[in-house]
Each structure stands twice: as structure tokens, then as C-alpha cells.
Design a protein that fits this description.
Elements (H helix, E strand, L loop, with lengths): L1 E6 L2 H20 L4 E4 L8 H4 L2 H10 L6 E7 L6 H12 L3 E6 L4 H6 L9 H6 L3 H12 L10 H8 L3 H7 L1 H16 L2
Parallel strand pairs: 1-2, 1-3, 3-4
Helix pairs in contact: 1-8, 1-10, 9-10
Length: about 190
């Protein structure tokens, strides 16, 4: 199986998505799955990522190269974003899945890490600006600001070792997507 992950902006998101999905697929199907992150075109934001014509462009450019396409965007506090993702999934069929991280992809990384004692997970999960309020603070605490992806690569690789924990802490988004992926992996 080959999967293409489509981020709203690959420049930093790739360092989160590749390790998390590589490890998630290994847990779901018991073997490695080729996971690539779409870097062409640079969508540059959620508005472009949610346009059907942009998704169609990506799928056409990568036709016959991937068995599965997964759009991953930030929720950014937009309650109705799930509905738009459902519409896109219906439009592009059963080999296309879409998910919005509550509230940002960095939340999934934080879910797989040991956080400072004074941080409560409920506060992290409820925060719309997770990246600024928690993720970047953790990057600074760990001295990773100058590392690849602004600390994302190192922290996501570490978090990816705890996929069950991420699923448990992020049931509405990461686990929901994992369940849909499991259904696809289990089908003949």
C-alpha cells in the first residue's frame, strides 16, 4: 500500500505527518506502508487545501502512484470544518480520507509526549492556538527551536512511538481517522 498525505502547508507539517502516519500504518497493518507527503504543489493554507480543484490537481498528478490519499488540515476552531471534509471525501471516493486536527497538527504530537507537570491535557486539547501556547513552549523547553521543522521532526518521531496514546487522547480526530484507515486495511 502507498499513501499520499496532503497537508495544508508541507513546509513544517511534513515533519509531523510522515513519522506519525508511518508508525500508525505499521500498527494498523503490521507492516510498513510507503507514506509520502505531498510537496507539489505547495497549497500554502487551509483555504487552498479545501478547494476541490486543488485536490483534483494533486490526485491527477499522482494518479496510479498511490492507493490512498489523506488530507490533513488544522481545525483552527472552525466547528463546521468537519462537514466540508465529509463533502470532499464523498466527492473523491473511498480512497480519499480527510481529517482536521483539533485544533492544530501539533496537538497530535503533544498527545504522544510527556508534557510538563503543570500542563493539563484538557487545557491543551481545548486550546485553539496550540502551536503558540503549548507546542512552541515545549520546543523551547527542550532546546529544539533550531532543529529541523522548528522541533517538529524530533518531537514527532518521539511521539510516533506512542500511537495508542495519541489515539486515546485525540478520539475525535486522530483516532477517528485511524479507525477509518483500519476499515480500509481490513477490507479485501
Amino acid at each position: 500500500m502507498n499513501a499520499l498525505i496532503i497537508p495544508e502547508d508541507f513546509r513544517k507539517d511534513q515533519y509531523i505527518l510522515k513519522p506519525l502516519f508511518t508508525r500508525l500504518f505499521r500498527r494498523l497493518v503490521g507492516r510498513s506502508v510507503q507514506v509520502d507527503v505531498c510537496v507539489d504543489p505547495l497549497l500554502g493554507g487551509v483555504t487552498e487545501a479545501l478547494k476541490s480543484e486543488r485536490i483534483a490537481e494533486i490526485m491527477e498528478a499522482n494518479r496510479n502512484m498511490y492507493d490512498l490519499y489523506i488530507l490533513c488540515v488544522d481545525r483552527d476552531g472552525v466547528v463546521g470544518r468537519r462537514q466540508r471534509l465529509d463533502d470532499i471525501q464523498r466527492e473523491f471516493g473511498p480512497t480519499f480520507l480527510a481529517e482536521n486536527a483539533w485544533e492544530e497538527l501539533e496537538t497530535w504530537v503533544l498527545a504522544g509526549l510527556d508534557l510538563p507537570r503543570e500542563w493539563r491535557w484538557t487545557d491543551v486539547r481545548a486550546e485553539i492556538h496550540v502551536k503558540e501556547r503549548f507546542f512552541e513552549r515545549l520546543v523551547d523547553l527542550r532546546g529544539l527551536a533550531d532543529s529541523t521543522g522548528g522541533g517538529r521532526k524530533a518531537l514527532a518521531e518521539l511521539a510516533s512511538r506512542r500511537i495508542p496514546t495519541i489515539r486515546q487522547k485525540c478520539p475525535e480526530d486522530f483516532d477517528s481517522l485511524a479507525q477509518r484507515l483500519q476499515s480500509i486495511a481490513d477490507s479485501p
